[in-house]
Specification:
- This protein is mainly α.
- It folds into 2 domains: 1-171, no CATH class; 173-269, no CATH class.
- It is built from 13 helices and no strands.
- The chain has helices at 14-35, 43-72, 81-102, 107-116, 118-135, 139-145, 147-153, 156-171, 176-193, 204-227, 232-238, 248-268, 272-283.
- The radius of gyration is 22 Å and the shape is globular.
């Protein structure tokens, strides 16, 4: 029997085991808060928000595996890509299941709400696609589907954007975290849009950071302009100064610049092979 923390030969993989343990933490913490009456006056609603939030977070982390593996030259990351995608699905299923609980299990009401509320419609559509991706994530499905497997799994990109829209609508006026996550999503999509030969030069990463930060600022502007009575120009102006503290767009730039610094540090650090060569040269 193949278990997540072992490879096909039965060897124990510490990295996969550690990631598997970590992905349970948000759900366990939420459950603990619930038992301790720390989820407020409406614990089911708060649990719905928490599980939905972690579904989006793990989906974005899963999307980040491919670029991080490429730019950091860290092959082990591919070992957990499927696990992280299935984790996003698990939290999305919990999110939807808790919503059914909130509606007292009345499926007629659930279906009616999904049909008549736009943000629930797109949220349910994302869930359906995640289920399809999860069902077809096995090695057997990959062999059977051939090229159609990759075409199906490319739906992750547009439906991740729909998940973010669902998150924005759910958050209503305070969209700081959705804006931050949207900025990181823009970075991931911009990286994938680059020609392969442009994905490795370190000079590209400061530019990606600036563009994704600017995109986050304009996404925030657009949201406030369309969906609130708050002056969007004042919100945009707040991104041009640090007088009011760091804005989500600033955090996007800082995080993505940090990634660029990590890439640079990894490239200039000597590998063990280079270290042995230097030692041999000095001994000679």
């Amino acid at each position: 029997m193949i278990v997540p923390w072992r490879d096909r030969r039965g060897r124990f993989l510490p990295f996969k085991a550690a990631v598997l343990a970590v992905v349970f933490v948000p759900g366990l913490v939420t459950a603990f808060w619930w038992t301790q009456n720390e989820l407020g006056a409406r614990p089911v609603t708060e649990a719905i928000h928490e599980t939905g939030l972690w579904a989006i977070r793990f989906l974005l982390i899963a999307l980040a595996i491919t670029p991080l593996r490429a730019v950091l030259d860290w092959g082990k990351l591919l070992l957990v890509r499927r696990m992280l995608g299935l984790t996003a699905l698990a939290y999305a299923v919990m999110h939807f299941s808790l919503y059914i609980v909130q509606q007292n299990g009345n499926m007629v009401t659930v279906v009616s709400e999904i049909v008549h509320r736009f943000y629930l419609t797109i949220g349910f559509a994302v869930l359906v696609v995640l289920i399809a991706l999860g069902v077809t994530s096995t090695d057997g499905a990959i062999r059977r589907m051939g090229r159609w497997w990759k075409r199906l799994h490319r739906l992750t990109y547009p439906f991740a954007a729909l998940a973010l829209l669902h998150y924005f609508i759910q958050s209503k006026a305070n969209v700081s975290e959705p804006v931050f996550v949207a900025g990181l999503y823009v970075w991931l999509m911009l990286w994938r849009a680059l020609p392969v030969r442009w994905q490795r030069p370190i000079a590209v990463y400061p530019l990606l950071a600036i563009v994704s930060g600017a995109a986050a600022a304009w996404i925030e502007f657009g949201w406030y302009a369309i969906n609130t009575h708050i002056d969007p120009w004042r919100v945009l102006a707040a991104n041009e100064t640090l007088r009011y503290g760091l804005r989500p767009a600033h955090y996007v730039v800082l995080v993505t610049l940090g990634l660029g610094s990590l890439i640079l540090a990894r490239r200039i650090a000597p590998t063990p092979r280079r270290g042995r060569r230097v030692a041999v040269a000095r001994a000679g």
